[in-house]
Amino acid sequence: MDRFTRTPIAEQDPQVRSTNFAEVCLGYTEEEAMREAKRCLHCKDPLCRPGCPVSIDIPGFIKHIADGNFADAAHVLAEYSALPAVCGRVCPQEDQCEKTCILGRKGEAIAIGKLERFAADWARVHGIEVGKTKPSNGHRVAVIGSGPAGITCAGELAKEGYDVTIFEALHEPGGVLVYGIPEFRLPKETVVKPEVENLMKLGVKIETNVIVGRTITVDQIFDEGFEAVFIGSGAGLPMFMGIPGENLNGVFSANEFLTRNNLMKAFREEFDTPIKVGNKVAIIGGGNVAMDAARTAKRLGAESYIIYRRTEAELPARVEEVHHAMAEGIIFEFLTNPVEILGNENGWVSGIKCVRMELGEPDASGRRRPQVVEGSEFEIEVDTVIMALGTSPNPLIASTTEGLEVNARKCIVADEHGQTTREGVFAGGDAVTGSATVILAMGAGKDAAKGIDKYIKEKYANN
Amino acid sequence: MQLYKIVEKEVLAPNIYSMQILAPRVAKSAKPGQFVIIISDEKGERVPLTICDYDEEKGTVQIVLQAMGSSTKKIVALEEGDYLKDFVGPLGVPSEFVNEDIEELKKRRMLFVAGGVGAAPVYPQVKWLHERGVEVDVIMGAKNKELVILEDQLKSVAGNLYVATDDGSYGFHGLVTNYIEELVNNQGKEYDICVAIGPMIMMKFVALTTKKLNIPTVVSLNPIMVDGTGMCGACRVTVGNETKFACVDGPEFDGHLVDFDEALKRQGQYKSEEIKKEQACHIGEGGK
User: Fold this and answer.
1) DSSP designation for B93
2) Is the pTM of this model over 0.90?
3) pLDDT tens-digit readout, A225-247
4) DSSP run (H or E) holding A219
5) How far is CA A342 from CA A239, B94, B172, B173, B285, in A?
6) Cα atoms in the 13 Å half-sphere on the side-chain side of B97
7) % of chain A residues with pLDDT over 90
8) Tell me: the pLDDT tens digits for B243-259?
9) Which of A34, A96, A297, B150 is most buried as measured by Cβ atoms within 10 A of its Cβ?
10) Are residues B230 and A236, on separate chains, in Cβ contact within 8 Å?
């Protein structure tokens, strides 16, 4: 066995997959998973584990896979994560657990994410029940938002015996897993839905169509008998550039484009929600959302361009996603920045005026600051522009909850246990950090669950 | 008790329906000026609709809708006792007067202008004011007599109710803008503020008229939206050179600052896609 080379994983052919919405990565077979798991050195002091925001016992679950005990592997994962099939697919493992894997020093790190996904998928397909809950303790906790932070917080509390209700603003639970990440990276029916159902099996109730701040307020939630509230409302507001022509017909936020396609299933003919893709699409931005939008547009039949102001090395998107996008024929325009969106006489996009950039001195983020190359203006002919510039938290909950402090970026202020400036109110995930990753939100949800447990137990002990 | 039951359905005019929907949380928190989003079935769109009335005790919310596209047609095809798949709200910011001093409001001479199904969202505003002793004038306009809706309800809460029809088949012969000019220029009426709700094109022309007459004007916009919570930005509208999201910053804005020409163009953004979808649906039906 070559210990330093990763077991290859099957993927749909790029030519084929760029015309469908089925999952790109096909996952390991049992034999492949065991072969990959056997590469693990089972370090006494594993370097992978501290790299995981939810501290999964990585060598532990990998050992079970190596031994062919797949159900046991799933049980280990369930102790630490409510969403292993999701995390195995969308976590940036290359920057976390796999980054610190000792094998990576001489060869390729263990494919921890792919193995996590394998174990979670195997358990689901084989109907293995994983969640165990303590007897009910009679305390009620409300969770706002059913994205990664909310699901994790709710799951952890339910396992501790709490009576948990999630309030979700949209009509489907899952948050960004449902409206943001496309089907070809994260299948909804086969992966997301079962993970939400697992949560309900733990006794968590989900009330959809409740917008906290409009339908009910945080104060009314307390009036209904809940003893603590966790806010995991995410970062849902799209940013725009503030350049001329942004309100022309054919300019969309990535949020709108992806929500229409993913949540509302516009790509399927039998669903009513329309989507507009045009023939040639420019996606502005270089994160995972930009890759998702570009690859979605491609699948809907358009020629897709990614316009990014720095170089390939600075792309914030996962390397795997960038490679997938390139293989599918997405065209990248690096060191390019839009300055104006051009329109025709009917108010529709006809092109985008850009400037070339060059990298200057490093800025506060440590990345070299892009600067405009004088006199480099040029136009690209497109009929659709999608803005994927990031998102910021929705101010609705903070503005309707007295005593809940937010910072200058409209993020809710919370400590490492999720405690906000208002008693009994906890928060975590993108609502606190601004847009980040699924796993960081899960980590915050988990920490807040501990904070809530401690808060309620102490309060109860004092009464 | 299953939510979102259609407890009452009524035909108000050809193709215009009123429905009472069981939605206790929305009924309890709704205020004048706000709206809801409804989904008819698994495959349906999120359709934004204005709230016509709400009854906290019964836990019901009244909506009024005109069957236009395939989604609204699906909704009006549902009968009493059926259920909507989803019903979420109240969305948007309530009308500004809701937070104002009642005594101040009583001194204000207010004119409401309702065009077509715009009578539905005007009703809860006028009713709210009437219940607090504030009497206001209302102009309601429709294409013809048949399409005049909610006349009795509005009459019971308005100070003066003026009806106009485009073809003169009922009430004043002319457009609502003609009626505004008639009241102000010929009948000596004076107004401190105008609230206009109706089709985008009507609101545009009301705003132009009231601008000439120097009457500050509030309009309630109904652009394309998906989630209605500020997430998608489809409802972007330019107000006084600033981009606003109608769903969370509105739906009510200063009518003299709204860029109506842009708003009208944006409303048609998905027309061709909707037609494609509809045709695809019918092709599917034919193949069954």
Assistant:
1) P
2) yes
3) 999 999 999 998 999 999 999 99
4) helix A218-223
5) 19, 36, 45, 44, 40
6) 25
7) 88
8) 999 999 999 999 999 99
9) A297
10) yes
User: B257 — contact with chain A (CB < 8 Å)?
Assistant: no
Helices (H), chain B: 24-29, 70-76, 102-107, 119-131, 151-157, 176-181, 200-212, 246-249, 260-267, 271-287
The answer to whether the CB atoms of A249 and B265 lie below 8 A apart is: yes
What's the complex ipTM?
Answer: 0.92
CB distance B25 to B56 below 8 Å: no
Interface mutation vs chain B, best among A212, A223, A247, most B CBs within 10 Å: A247
Residue A289 exposure: Cα atoms within 13 Å on the Cβ side: 26
Contacts of B71 in chain A (CB under 8 A): 272
DSSP structure class, residue A227: S
When CB atoms are compared, the residue of A209, A270, A274 closest to B87 is A209
Q: Is the pLDDT of residue A187 over 80?
A: yes
Cβ neighbours, 10 Å, residue A27? 17
Let me know: does B139 contact B180? Beta carbons within 8 Å.
yes
Question: Could you tell me the two tokens for B194?
Answer: 């105008």
Q: H helices of B3-107, where?
A: 24-29, 70-76, 102-107
Check residue A62 and report its DSSP letter: H
Instruction: Please give the Cα distance from A289 to A295 (Å, whole number).
Output: 10
Task: Answer for the pair A187, A274: CB distance below 8 angstroms, yes or no.
Answer: no
Q: Which among B238, B248, B284 has CB closest to A247?
A: B238
Helices A58-66, A30-37: crossing angle, 10 deg rounding: 130
3-state secondary structure of A7: coil
Per-residue exposure over B252-276, b if at least 16 CB sit within 10 Å of its own CB, e if not? bbebbebbbebbbbbbebbeebbee
The structure tokens listed for B87 are 């019903």
Q: What is the CA radius of gyration of chain A?
A: 23
Q: Which residue of A has its CA nearest to B24?
A: A215
Asked whether the beta carbons of residue A256 and residue B39 sit closer than 8 angstroms, the reply is no
Residue in B closest to A278 by C-alpha: B273
d(CA A194, CA B225): 29
- Rounded to whole angstroms, how far apart are CA atoms B283 and B286? 5
Closest-CA residue of chain B to A346: B265
CA distance B86 to A183: 23
In DSSP terms, A230 is beta-bridged to A143, A426
CA dihedral A451, A456, A460, A463 (to 10 degrees): 90
Residue of A209, A385, A392 for testing the chain B interface, max B β-carbons within 10 Å: A209
What DSSP string describes A297-354?
Answer: HHHTT-EEEEE-SS-GGG--S-HHHHHHHHHTTPEEE-SEEEEEEEE-TTSBEEEEEE
Collapsing DSSP to helix, strand or coil, A362 comes out as: strand
Q: Say what the pLDDT of residue B279 is.
A: 65
Q: What is the pLDDT of residues A90-113, one digit of tens each?
A: 888 999 999 999 999 999 999 999
- Mutate one of A176, A272, A385, A400 to test the B interface: name it (highest B CB count within 10 A): A272
Distance CA B20, CA A103 (A): 65
Tell me the count of A-B CB pairs closer than 8 A. Answer: 119
CB B83 within 8 Å of CB B2: yes
